[in-house]
Design goal:
Layout lengths: L12 H17 L3 H31 L4 H29 L4 H8 L2 H11 L6 H19 L3 E3 L2 E3 L5 H4 L4 H17 L1 H21 L5 H8 L7 H30 L24 H15 L1 H12 L3 E2 L11 E5 L4 E5 L7 H18 L13 H14 L4 H5 L3 H31 L5 H15 L9 H4 L8 H5 L5 H19 L1 H13 L6 H7 L10 H18 L4
Parallel strand pairs: 3-5
Antiparallel strand pairs: 1-2, 4-5
Helix pairs in contact: 1-2, 1-3, 2-3, 3-5, 6-9, 11-17, 11-24, 12-13, 14-15, 14-22, 15-21, 17-18, 17-21, 17-24, 21-22, 21-24
The protein binds zinc ion.
Length: 565
């Protein structure tokens, strides 16, 4: 069956509820672990069906937002989501309180039980109205950002539409574009501060109602951090400060010399070469053809997987009227296949879709044997290991896509991975400050952000831009508003992906073997367990960051010598 033949029908919620409630009651009355496991299988079959229908509706809606049928279905699922959550809670409760819990845990693994416990800990009917308030505030932020209309180059533009000007070859255009972008945020400074202030206070209220001391504790539960603590994350950040910040500063210093500037200002940081960034040397058909060839050659596993993705039309990557922006990877567990959504635009980002999103999809496909929906994708910190590592496993084929720009691409890719990490940990430390000090004033928040920027991002030169000098930059970072404590996940995963980069240079076959092994176990283990299972060092362990970065810094230094200006 191809993607457009996957049959969609909205499940009848009342019928679903009756079936699941009956199964939960059978489960509670079951006389043995064996019997409970059989019932749990039936429960999961129903849940996989509901998940698949919900994902199918939202995917088809995002492919063509003008389609009225899927628009209505998508709205239905937005509303039905919490109802299904409630059914899940009843299932979790029954399983956690099973008289045969030890036997079930031995069979299913402990991770599902930890996730179920965390899910129950982070919810109570008492907080429903607070959660609605939190969602409303988060969408207020999204709406404000989406409402931006910036007059530039003779036209009104969105923030995304400013992107190409912000990387323009002409320094004056870049400066003007950044200034216009920042002016939008400064103009709405008070509103942004207010939205955030209310988010911090409603989140703190929710945490207290659920019995936590503050939202830091609840934030870790929401992110399903079953095996690491704020103290461990703080230790990771201090390793970044000591070992990565100097390398990132060095990367920017080389960039300054390459560009021939006397100093790099904040609007120069994303401008890497006078001759322009690396771009793919062909149209979307060319890119997909090269993708097939690459995955054919990479391994038998990727060959089978990618051919199936192409044969079943499981990639929708062309920019079309009515299509939503952005990109994502999802899965239809009932059909045991993943799906990739993207909008090719002629930049190196198109190749990232083919490596990063395909990394997520490959893991989902390798995990298709797992029947518990909570366990196919792991937690976000681990998910990004699969995608970011696949980007590096694809390096030997980059020549096919980038031709004469290959060295530029590889250098920018690896250097970008390094320079992102200090920013990621600054965003994380900022949020620890915010939720540990929920009554800090708006000015105190901004000066804390500016203090962190100076520590972790000493190469950011705002050149007198008042709002940025006062600590306003973080208003642009949506995660800080919508998904607290998410950001560190990218940096933890990147440290793991960089270890794969190192390992594949030493022994490609062994590194690939570890990677596939890691993909196959999906989310059946916690982050630190998965890291150990993939023969990687934990980013929290003393010495890990240093051991990863030294070889990479040396590679970058050598590669920089060969780069064009
Ligand atoms: Zn990703």
């Amino acid at each position: 069956m191809k993607f457009n033949e996957f049959k969609y029908a909205r499940p009848d919620f009342e019928e679903m509820k009756a079936k699941l409630t009956a199964l939960v009651s059978d489960f509670k009355n079951a006389a043995s672990a064996k019997e409970q496991l059989e019932i749990f299988d039936e429960i999961n079959m129903l849940r996989r069906h509901a998940d698949t229908m919900a994902n199918l509706a939202s995917t088809r809606h995002s492919i063509d937002t003008r389609d009225e049928f899927y628009d209505a279905e998508n709205t239905y699922w937005d509303e039905a989501g919490p109802l299904y959550e409630e059914l899940n809670a009843a299932i979790y409760e029954a399983i956690l309180n099973s008289a045969f819990r030890d036997e079930l845990e031995a069979k299913l693994g402990t991770q599902f039980f930890k996730l179920a416990e965390y899910s129950l800990k982070s919810f109570s009917p008492e907080i429903i109205s607070d959660l609605q308030e939190e969602n409303r505030l988060a969408s207020d932020y999204d709406k404000l950002i989406a409402s931006a209309k910036i007059m530039f180059d003779g036209e009104e533009r969105t923030l995304a539409g400013m992107g190409k000007y912000m990387q323009d070859k002409d320094q004056n255009v870049r400066e003007a574009a950044w200034t216009a972008r920042i002016a939008f945020f400064e103009e709405h400074e008070e509103k942004l501060d207010d939205i955030y202030d209310q988010l911090v206070s409603v989140r703190t209220k929710i945490a207290k109602k659920l019995g936590f001391n503050n939202f830091v504790e609840l934030g870790y539960v929401r992110m399903n951090r079953t095996d690491y603590t704020p103290e461990m994350v703080a230790n990771f950040r201090s390793q970044v400060k000591e070992f990565i910040v100097p390398v990132a500063s060095e990367i920017y210093e080389l960039q300054r010399k390459r560009l021939g500037y006397d100093k790099l200002r904040y609007f120069d940081l994303n401008f890497k070469f006078q001759s322009g960034n690396a771009t793919p040397k062909g149209d979307p058909d060319f890119i997909l053809e090269q993708g097939i060839k690459m995955y054919d050659e990479l391994s038998p596993e990727t060959k089978e997987f990618f051919n199936l993705m192409m044969d079943k039309d499981l990639l929708d990557v062309l920019n079309k009227p009515g299509k939503q922006g952005g990109g994502y990877c999802t899965e239809f567990t009932e059909f045991a296949v993943p799906f990739i959504f993207a909008n090719f635009n002629g930049t190196s980002g198109d190749i990232d879709v083919l490596t990063h999103e395909v990394g997520h999809a490959f893991q989902s496909y390798e995990s298709r044997h797992l029947s518990i929906p909570e366990l196919t994708f792991p937690t976000y910190d681990s998910c990004e290991i699969h995608s970011m590592s696949m980007e590096f496993f694809c390096w030997p084929w980059m020549e096919n896509f980038f031709k004469e720009d290959t060295e530029k691409y590889k250098y920018t890719h690896l250097a970008g991975a390094i320079t992102f990490i200090p920013y990621g940990v600054a965003v994380d430390e900022f949020q620890h400050f915010i939720y540990a000090n929920p009554t800090a004033t708006k000015t105190q928040r901004k000066s804390e952000w500016r203090r962190l920027e100076k520590q972790y991002l000493p190469f950011r030169n705002f050149d007198g831009a008042d709002y940025l000098e006062r600590g306003g930059w973080w208003h642009q970072q949506g995660h800080i508003f919508s998904t607290p404590f998410y950001y560190i996940d990218y940096t933890l995963a990147q440290i793991c992906a960089l270890q794969f980069w190192k390992n594949m240079h030493e022994d490609q076959e062994a590194a690939w073997h570890d990677y596939v092994k890691l993909c196959k176990v999906g989310g059946t283990k916690s982050f630190t367990e998965l890291v150990a299972y993939g023969n990687l060092k934990s980013p929290f362990a003393d010495g890990c960051v240093e051991s990863v970065i030294s070889e990479i810094a040396a590679w970058l230094k050598e590669a920089a010598k060969q780069l064009p200006s």
